[in-house]
Structure prediction request, 798 residues.
Amino acid sequence: MTNSSWAYLSNYLIYSSMAVFTLAFFAHAYETAWSVRTPELESTPKTGNTLTRTMDYTRTEKVARIATSFMILGFLLLVAGVVARGVSAGRVPWGNMYEFSITGAMAFCGAYLVALRKYDLRWLGLPVSIAVLLTLGTAITILYRPSAPLVPALKSTWLVIHVSAAIISGGVFLLANAIAATYLLLDAMEMRGERKAWAKRLPSLEVLDQLSYRLVAFVFPLWTFAVIAGAIWAENAWVRYWGWDPKETWAFITWVAYAAYLHARVTVGWRGRKAAWLCLFAGSTFLFNYVYVNIWGSGKHTYSGL
Amino acid sequence: MSEQVTMQELGAGSLLRFLWRQLTSMRTALILLLLLAIASVPGSLIPQRGQNPMKVREYFANDPTVAKILDRLSLFDVYGSPWFSAIYILLFISLIGCVLPRTFEHFKAARALPPLTPKYLDKMEYYQFWSGGSDQLDAGRTWLKAKRFRIREFEGAISAEKGYLRETGNLFFHLALILVLIGVSFGALFGMKGEAIVNVGERFTNTPTTYDSLSFGKLFRDTNLPPFVITVDDFVAKYNLITNAPEDYTLTVSAVSEPGTPAFQKVIKVNSPLSFGNTNVYLQANGYSVNVTVRDSAGEIVLQGPIPLLPQDGNLTSLGAIKVPDSQPQLGFVATLLPTQARTKAGAGISSFPEALDPELLLSIWKGDLGLDTGIPQSVYRLDTSKLAKIGLKSLKIGQTYTFTEGSIRFDGVTPWVNVQIVQDPGKRYALLGAIVAIFGLLASLFTRRRRIWIRYREDGTMEVAGLAKNGAPGLENEIRDLVADLQKGGK
Ligand code: HEM
Prediction:
């Protein structure tokens, strides 16, 4: 196959994965919406009308499993799309913002699926499928660039090491963020009274709190490694290992923010709301780096191709 | 650790001690970390002198009042500013104040035995009991030993502890951060950075005078420059035929580490510099020199050789000045090189490809006073035409000569040049070592679970097992379940 047919194949696969993620989205939405209707009004002569709150998920269980299968299928198609893109360019598919985005979506979805094996996280499928769809949609419409070889400074093994570590960390950070955001949402809901029907199925606040912490603690070393690998590469390509380039600066900010988060939890004993806000803050520095610095920032890391 | 410092203590103790405790408290560490993150932000939004001096000058030109205010706050130089330094210095003092005492404590604790089994085990996070036999205690000991718990036995009870590695890793992590900081500062104080343009075929000797520009740290000495010599043998640039974007640069040099040692050949690429110990030689940029021969009206050669020009665009249209101070009158040429000459529809000359496939040299010729004797430093790439008169305009292909009243100029050919950047950083090894230790420390610290397990056989025949995990680390429940299953299977 020629390079351009690999590129076509890649686009085709990306579109297919988007179609499958759309199905996953609908299945997850159906599953969530269905549980809202479960509470039933019961009339008994003695007590009058009572709203029973016993949930029955057996009916949504099947849809939920289908949703997860769609997520897995979409993920596999996405992986194939990313790989084909790499083959078409004869390199790792991390040369411009379009490629970063599809790989990032892949990492995020992958982080979700891996975490799903260990934790009861299926409820996150809805936001995850929305986020993945939005990312892929923007990528292929706005950020798309034809497949091309790399500029010389990007030709390095360190690119592979540094960028893959950064992208995986990013996927997990965003997952932790999604969980922290859910925490705050449910927390606000519980402050006002009871959880809404659809939210009853979601884990308790303590579980969410622990979960986002575990995810961060798990990838923080990887992010540290990504920053160090970046520094080693910069030392080879740009003459210095640290130059306070905007991208480097924001990577540093993210690192310090997560270090602060871990400190707050482990040594100062922050839990719950405060910790969730700090987690969101740290995660948004990562997103900011990705969106703002890639597109509007100046500096040496201007590979977005925009 | 001094987490709670009350005002009462202040009354009793000295102010200094109070401040020290405050500084080394966990809360302060957290605040300083958050401050450090926030303080790094402006430097990525406002142009910085160290990264982008041009943009800073632009800022001053566009908006001098605001620029002056920003400058007073060191906002064009955030990462060297007093307030930024204050934050990280405080953070590191806090770090040292926190970590050193903990290191000693941990050193003691690592050799101490686990604490005795408490009286009431049922208060623990995990607790189970059943009626068993004393042989189960032996089975428990074996199990714990196999899992490499640290064990202390006392009156029919075993207390066991595991996971000291967590604290060890944590201490190594924090200590390694100090090493990173030392490495970075060391490099800034004792390092140097410079660059030079070298034509293919020419030699570069590592002495201060051969640099085009050179800057060094406060404690750097000239004698710290390693005495290497490199000769640029060859430079090949490959460009994409469709997009004209660079695809590969290969610089081949012969090098001598110090006079008297054998020469060796080495290929330098954008991502792989040539190293002499702490000193790296990088390929930074490339361009063209034009080889010209200038004669005076008598036909004597007054200038010959490659003159480097500076690239102006992606197709390496290059601009520079040829200055001939030794002719009468002095001559100057503003030179534009089009490596692959082409014409726009309007007829203007442009370069259509970065390789020198069909070079054309455009010259505007001036005579008069070059202004070299005024003592004011001049750029070698710019002709100061204030005291010069224009006498001609000409474009030349390789081999062509243009003759004018005051003399002639011949375009002999094109030689590529490379810009090498030479950086000496004696601190980077320490920084790298620190970074590696930090990662391993972090891994050890975040993936080790510290926990205690107790097994007791009571006189009445009750077996008790209890456990406690520090920081609510997960997994202890399963571990206890395994242990209990093992005991109940092994003993009776
Ligand atoms: C350069 C600034 C610092 C950074 C980047 C940093 C980073 C971290 C990180 C990532 C952790 C989490 C590791 C774990 O959970 O075991 C941690 C834990 C910890 N840090 Fe720091 N830290 C810094 C400064 C400090 C300072 C100034 C102190 C003391 C005042 C301190 C004391 C501690 C302690 C006691 C722990 C928890 C150990 C444990 O119980 O597991 N750190 N630090």
